Amino acid sequence: MDEREIRSLSDRSGVEVGEVRALFHQESARLRMGAKIGSYLAVLTTANVRGMLRRAARHKRLPRHLHCWEDDGGTVRPR
Asked: What pLDDT does residue 37 have?
């Protein structure tokens, strides 16, 4: 199921599949750490990544910067 969601997010956002896959797996791992019920992780991960991609597009960030985005409204973490 993850691969189908990743490809869908990539198609809709225009961001390369590899970039979306990396972002998806990073967000999934972050959510999995505190999850008490795992059955909703795929849906929540997809929604979070979709939001990250939308914020990145709105702020005209290049895809290579997407891994810096957090799920707190679009602030960028310092590198």
From this structure: 82
